[in-house]
Amino acid sequence: MTSPDAEQGGVAGETQATPEDGVPRPEERLERAVRAAEQALIEYEIAVETFRVEVENFSRLHHQKLGPMYARLDELDAEIAEARAARTGDPEDRRKAEEARARVLPMPGVEELFHGWMDGEGLFPEAAAMLTDQPVRPPQRVRPSDEARKLYRELARKAHPDLAQEDAERARREEFITRVNAAYARGDEPLLRELAEEWEKGPAPAERRPSESEELYARLEWLAERKEMLTLVAKDLEESAIGSMLRMAPDDPDQLLDEIAEKLLADVSRREEELAELLA
């Protein structure tokens, strides 16, 4: 992430009108502080949004690649519990078997939850094929390229709504940034280029005019509250199951998925052997 200090350097270096004695007015010093805080907040928002997209994409890949294996393990657990209950006749074993079976019964609306590998009737053919030697379409890979990340960062810095002073300009920027975020989430580099051209052709943002001290202090307070909110969002992302996994291998998440898949396949094999022994 670009250092906030680097972004703030241009602000600090701007020429400010000063009284004849050469001492800047308090409002001018406060305005420089507000501008520096704005740039720092924008950089932080970019970092949080970038990580959110990475977590979302990794979550999609995780479900597509490993979901069928988790489903197979749940099914085997249910069959093992049922086989054990049938052998012992123990009421507690029967209760456990019923609970295990309930966890794998089809449920309405699960298709949208499991990203296209399972519906209310069970596994899709492609998902089932992942547990066999049959060919299967690889999971969709949606990870923004380095160039897409660069374009996104540049657009976020230039068009961020927090840089607007008028309500109309803020609304224009919010609508534009919404389209930028959507394109970045899809990794759509050509569309990000088009949006960059669109922004350059659009109306130039109004020059920031000096504000009164009370308004500048209120602005700083709002920026601090926004930073606190983003800190909570970042913490939730980092502490989530998918976020924690992604942080384990930020440079090669695919390798991490392969390692987990290998472990799950070994678990499936052990469960199948246990079930075969119970049914023998």
Top keywords for this entry?
280 residues; mainly alpha; disordered N terminus
Structural summary, described in words:
The chain is mainly alpha-helical and 280 residues long. The protein has helices at residues 4-12, 26-88, 91-102, 110-113, 125-129, 146-159, 167-185, 189-201, 213-239, 241-248, 253-279; strands at 118-119, 122-123. It has a two-stranded antiparallel ribbon with strand order 1-2. The longest helix has 63 residues, at 26-88. It is elongated, with a radius of gyration of 27 Å. The model is unreliable at 1-18, 107-121 and 130-136 (pLDDT under 50).
Describe the global form.
Answer: elongated
Secondary-structure-based class equals: mainly alpha
> Which runs of at least 5 residues are low in confidence (pLDDT < 50)?
1-18, 107-121, 130-136
Find the count of extended strands (DSSP E, 2+ residues): 2
SSE sequence, one letter per element: HHHHEEHHHHHHH
Note the total helix count.
11
* Arrangement of strands in the largest sheet: 1-2
Overall mean pLDDT stands at 76
Could you tell me the radius of gyration in angstroms?
A: 27 Å
In this structure, how is the largest beta sheet organized? 2 strands, antiparallel
How much beta, percentage-wise? under 5%
Helix content: over 70%
Distance between the termini: 59 Å
